[in-house]
Prior knowledge:
Blueprint: E1 2-3, E2 8-12, H1 24-33, H2 37-55, E3 58-61, E4 69-76, H3 84-96, E5 105-111, E6 115-119, H4 128-131, H5 147-155, E7 163-169, H6 179-185, E8 192-195, E9 205-211, E10 215-217, E11 221-230, E12 236-244, E13 247-248, E14 252-256, E15 259-268, E16 273-282, E17 294-301, E18 305-310, H7 316-323, E19 327-331, E20 348-352, H8 361-372, E21 376-380, H9 395-399, E22 418-424, E23 433-434, E24 437-438, H10 442-457, E25 463-469, E26 473-481, H11 482-494, H12 505-518, E27 523-529, H13 541-549, E28 553-558
Amino acid sequence: MTMPFGLGTLRLASPAALLALLVVPLFFAAARRARRGLPAAICRSAAALAIVFVLAGPRLETPRPERGACVIAAIDVSASVQDAAVETARAFLARLLPRLGPDDVVGSVAFAAHARVIAHPAAGRPSLAALLPAHVDADPDADDTDLGAAYLAADSLCPAGKQAALVLFTDGNETQGSIVAEIALGEPSLPVFPVVPPAAALPAAAIRRLLAPAFAPELSVLPLSVVVESRAPRPLPAVLEVRADEEEAAPVPVELPPGTSLVELPYRFRAEGEFLLRARLLLPPDQPRAPAPAGVPITVTPPARVLLVSGLARPVVAVALTRRGADVDVVPPAALAARLGELADYHAVVLDDVARAGLGDETLERLRVYVARGGALIATGGERLFGDPGFAESPLARVLPVTLEPRSAEPKTREPIALYLLIDRSNSMGYSSSNPAVQFGEKMEYAKRAAIAVLDQLGPSDLVAAIAFDSQPYELGALRPVGESRDALRASIERIQYGGGTDFKDALDIARRNLVESGRRVRHVILLTDGDTNRHPEDHAELIAALARAEITVTTIRIGSDTINLELL
C-alpha cells in the first residue's frame, strides 16, 4: 500500500493474518451484550485490531533512508575478469549516479589478491571516472582473487548513520580468503549485492597462475607450470607464449579442456640476471577477448659449478650434468689434491666410483670440511667406491648418508632349511576363469608345477614335506632330507587331483608343529591356493600368531583371478 504525502510504501510480512479482522465485530457485539457500554466495546475492538496488525508484520519502506544511503562499488580487476567487471560497473554506476539524493554518498574499491580504495564516499556527487579503477590501478598479484579483502575494505568506508550497501562486480572466482567468513564475523554485516558480468564479456580462458622457482641457474632447463582456466564448454585450442623480458620462447600449441588444467613448459635461461617471466595465452580469432598475461619475477644465477672426480675418460654423470646446464670440470683422482684450495668455488663435488687408493687422508678430510661449510658432496658408482673397505673408517664415511662396510665373502654353502609345501586340491582349483583366461583344471596344474619347481631348487641337506588339502589335509610326504625323498615326493605331487571343499588351517598347523620339531633355524611354508576357504579369516588369527612366535615364515602364492581373502593371504 502506497502511503500519502510521499511517506513510502506499507508492506506486510504476513498478509494472511488480516483474515483475523473478520472476528473483530464479534468482540464489539460481545461487549454490547454484556451491557458494559459503548466505550468498553470500542476499547476491546481496538485492542483486537492492534493485535491483528502486529501479527501481520507491517513495515514502512521509504524511498530513501532518513539520513541517506552509502553505496560502495567493489570492482574485480583480477586476471579471470580483466576489464569486464570495470565495464559492468561503469554501466551500473552510470544509471545509479543520477538517482542519488542529496544525503546519499558513493565510493568504490578495486581488488584482486588485495583491495585498495579508489574513491572514498563523501558529500557531493562524484564523477563516473573517479569511481572506476584506471589501468595503472591493476593489482600486480592479479592471478588471485580475494572477495573477503574487498568486503573488509568496503565495510569500514561508510559514514555512521547511513544505510550501507556493497555492490560486488565479480565473476565470483575466489582463490584466496573467504567472503562468507568475513560476512559471518561482521557486526552488523554489510549487505552484499553481487553483479556478475555477462558471459560474453569474460575471456573464454585465463591464466590463473604461473608457477616457477624464485631462483634458477643459467642455462638450466626450468620446469614452468601454468595454471589455466577455460570457461568454454568444450576443448579450446590455444597457444601459450612464455618470455623473460624481451627474450621469447617458441609458442606452444595446447588444447584446454573445460575447467582448470595444468600446462607444463620447459624453459631455458641463457643469461644471468633478474627477469620478469610472463606467460601469455593466445586464443582463436573468433574469441572476442584476449586473456591477460600472468607474470612472476625470477633471478637467474650463474650455472652450477661442479667438480667431478672420475677415472673415466668421458663419465656419464658429467654428460648428464652438462646437458642440464651445469658447468662441469672433470679431474682424475690423482689431480684432486691439487684442486683442494679451489673447492669453495664449486657448488658440488662428485666422486664417480673412485677407489680409496686414489684419495689420501688429507683429501678426504678437506672434503669433510667442505661439506661442513655447506658444500654438496655426491658419491656415485659401484665396487670401487661402495665396495672398497678402505672407506669404512674414513672421513668420507662420516659425511655420506650411507653406511660403508667392507664386503664380506659370499658363503660357499648356505644353511640347510626346513620347508613345507601346502597345495590346494579343492574343487575351485579346477574352475576356469576369463580374466585372466584359465581353462578347467589349469589352476591345479599351475600349483603342481610350482611345487615341483621349488622342490628342484632345494639342496640334498634341506628338509622338505608336502601336504595336499581340500576340506581335510592329506600328507604327501613327511619332513625328510631332500636327497632321500625328492623323487617320491615329485611323483606324489604329480598325482594330485582336484575335488572337495577348502580348508588350509589344519594343513598349516601340521606344518607348524613339524617345523618346530625339526630343529632347523630357517623354517618356511609355501602355500599354493586360489584363496577360497570354508573358514572365516578371523579363525586363523591364533594360528598366525603361533607361527610368528615360532619364527616360521609363510609365503602365499595365489593362483587364479579370485580376490577373496586377499588380506588374509
